[in-house]
Write a structure and sequence with these properties.
Helices cover 41% and strands 5% of the residues. With 120 residues, it is mainly alpha-helical. The chain has one domain. The chain is globular.
């Protein structure tokens, strides 16, 4: 998501695959100063990768971590932009219920839904 809550890139993963596995792929070629993510993106490898590029990782630590990492709580509130976008996308029944059986077709409907949200 951009700073305005607009999608920049969409990567489809298997349902049982953690989102954090595709985080680097999502942002690899994009210019960024801050990466905001929820606890699902709490990975030492990812946070180190973000910091190595001179950016700030605004990702809270999992509660089970012994060392809790500090993050900008005020900036973290901007994560709601992404949540609101996905809430709008899920208004499209085919996306919310994953009506399509193939990954290719499902991704196509997600992209169409994203375009519809952007055009409003």
């Amino acid at each position: 998501m951009s700073g305005l809550g607009l999608p920049v890139r969409i990567v489809l993963t298997a349902g049982q695959e953690a989102d954090v596995t595709q985080a680097e792929t999502l942002i690899r070629d994009l210019p960024f100063e801050v990466v905001i993510g929820d606890k699902g993106y709490d990975s030492k490898k990812l946070v180190g990768w973000i910091r190595a590029r001179g950016a700030e990782a605004v990702i809270p630590s999992l509660s089970s971590r012994k060392e809790q990492r500090d993050y900008d709580r005020e900036r973290y509130k901007d994560r709601n932009l992404a949540e609101r976008f996905w809430g709008k996308i899920k208004q499209f029944r085919r996306v919310a219920t994953r009506y399509e059986k193939t990954a290719r077709n499902f991704l196509a409907f997600v992209q169409v839904a994203a375009i519809m949200v952007l055009l409003k």
